[in-house]
Design goal:
The protein is globular, with a radius of gyration of 15 Å. The chain is mostly beta strands. 12% of the residues lie in helices and 39% in strands. The protein has one domain: Hotdog Thioesterase (Thiol Ester Dehydrase, Chain A, Roll). It binds tetradecanoyl-COA. Tetradecanoyl-COA (MYA) binds next to α1, β5 and β8. The site of tetradecanoyl-COA has 18 residues, from α1, β5 and β8. This is Acyl-coenzyme A thioesterase THEM4. Its main location: membrane.
């Protein structure tokens, strides 16, 4: 299905999931969609493997964690959180050297906590993993320190207006 992109989120410098200067990272892009969900798009690499050809389960967890954790900032980019708990179900192998999509959304939110769900969708539409995460809201200076600024967190614009996400099987 094709979704209109409302906004591309900022990226970090060194983050394992989104950092553009992390040579071993996933260099993921995050897009806020018209339906209120967030999609992460990235290309898995050989060095993200556990068994040959198969992405490490911890990498899948990191992708789902960040996608759900970022979904809370749709509409208010000053809301940040730290992960309190994260539960995954690994349903199919995530291949290395493949473009994948991670979709997340917030399911519950109050002043202190938020919860969300997400899934990794392979290019053929298979759902490879699902997750439920719980996060505690926290000001960014409490998470990352007073020095957190524009050299750590910045725009990474592109001209993507629509994203086609494989139909889930
Ligand atoms: C450059 C940027 C790069 C990338 C950025 C990407 C963007 C974002 C991506 C995000 C994705 C990546 C994100 C990451 O990778 S974050 C990295 C992984 N996570 C962490 O590091 C978190 C580590 N844990 C902690 O710091 C503490 O345990 C926290 C802060 C979570 C709680 O601390 P603490 O235990 O001291 O809490 P409190 O005593 O102050 O209690 C406060 C209140 O909270 C209630 N409570 C506590 N626990 C729970 C619970 N389990 N369920 C329900 N409620 C709970 C508690 O009852 C109390 O309520 P009340 O009694 O006041 O009513």
């Amino acid at each position: 299905m094709i979704y209109k992109v409302l906004k591309k989120q900022n990226i970090g410098k060194s983050c394992i999931v989104c950092g553009n200067k992390n040579e071993l990272g996933l260099k993921s892009d995050f897009y806020e969609l018209e339906n209120g969900e967030l999609v992460c798009v990235c290309n898995t690499k050989d060095w993200h493997q556990s068994y040959p050809g198969r992405v490490h389960g911890g990498i899948s967890a990191a992708l789902l964690d960040e996608t759900i954790g970022r979904a809370v900032s749709i509409g208010d980019d000053q809301v940040w959180g730290v992960t309190v708990s994260l539960e995954l179900k690994y349903k199919k192998p995530v291949p290395t050297d493949e473009k994948i999509y991670v979709v997340g959304r917030i399911t519950k939110e109050n002043r202190k906590l938020f919860e969300g769900t997400g899934e990794i969708i392979l290019s053929n539409g298979d759902i490879a993993a699902t997750a439920h995460g719980k996060y505690m809201k926290m000001p960014i200076d409490m998470i990352a320190g007073e020095e957190f600024g524009s050299d750590e967190w910045f725009e990474n614009p592109d001209d993507v207006e629509y994203i086609e996400i494989p139909d889930k099987k």
